[in-house]
Amino acid sequence: MKKLLVFALNPTSLFIAGLILSFILLLNSNWVAKGRKLLGLVLLCYIGIGMFPVGIWALNKLEERFPIQTDPTHLNDGSPIAGILVLGGSVNTIMTRERNQVQVGGNIERLTEFMRLARLHPEAQLAYVGGQGLVFDVKPTEAEVSKRFLQELGMNTEAMWFEDVSRNTEEGAQISYERLQPGVKPWVLITSAQHMPRAVGLFRKAGWNILAYPVDYRTLPGEQSGRPMSWRPSWPGNLHAANDALYEWSALTFAWLRQKTDTLFPAPLQNHTLGPATNPAAGSFPPANPVAQVTQ
Questions:
Q1: CA 229 from centroid of its chain's CA atoms
Q2: What is the C-alpha to C-alpha distance for residues 163 and 144, in angstroms, rounded to an integer?
């Protein structure tokens, strides 16, 4: 329901609906004046949101919330990490099934950076969290396709845990916590930078002690993004950025109102080495983890 609601209310959908309604009004001689006003309002909103960097600004606020990890060999200030989590969303399950070849999306950095961290931290337990984000066509799952992708690139996934039933980030956080019982040591969480604030908030609420590792950036660092000197008006504009920004900010607000996150806009903790006091249990992975080995 949430995904359908966000789809109906995203800027692109509203723009198309506004155009259709405007033309319907213009076809009726009694409503021509209102049709012109509505059409003018729709075009004005399109120029303001699509051609100006509103979406880029909004995305940049999300992406800059958690700092990029510039030294992946010394995560958690050099202290040990318990494991590495990577969220789904990097593969096209339907196209993979129909073409019988792994098809990836624009945020494949989630998986490539996951592989790099796995090699750099062979002591860490590894887990993939992501069942199926589609509403109807649910086979194969993202976990199945991502596992195939990792194996085809030479990664040993024998001891890696794949969560393949969740439909969204909230469910993935809860299911993986119940299954893995992660303990008090921090786990590295890999996802797209724009998705990181919401993901961290949901995973913290579920009980995880999370160290954010944002990837898949779409905006330039800090205030450089969207500055007048780097922005040029273009046609047909960039509604895609506005769509994604609205989705994430709406999902953040929705999760906070439902008390699925502790704060509206989750931020880095002062001391991320402190784990949740409610779960002193050790992780349930086997003691040996050969996942980081890459076959030749």
A1: 29
A2: 9
Q: Helix or strand or coil: residue 273?
A: coil
Q: What is the pLDDT of residues 43-72, one digit of tens each?
A: 888 888 877 888 888 999 999 999 998 888
167-205 residues labelled b (16+ CB within 10 A) or e (exposed): ebbbbbbbbbbeebebbbbbbbbbbbbbbbbbbbbbbbb
Cβ contact 177:208 at 8 Å: yes
Q: Residue 67: exposed, middle, or buried by beta-carbon count in 10 A (0-12, 13-18, 19+)?
A: exposed
Cα–Cα nearest to 264, from 247, 275, 251: 251
φ and ψ of 12, to 5 deg: -65, -45
Whether this prediction's pTM lies above 0.85 is answered by no
Give 175's Cβ-side CA count (13 Å radius).
Answer: 18
| DSSP-derived 3-state class of residue 155 | strand
Rounded to whole angstroms, the Cα distance separating 159 from 293 reads: 11
Token duo for residue 35: 């049709």
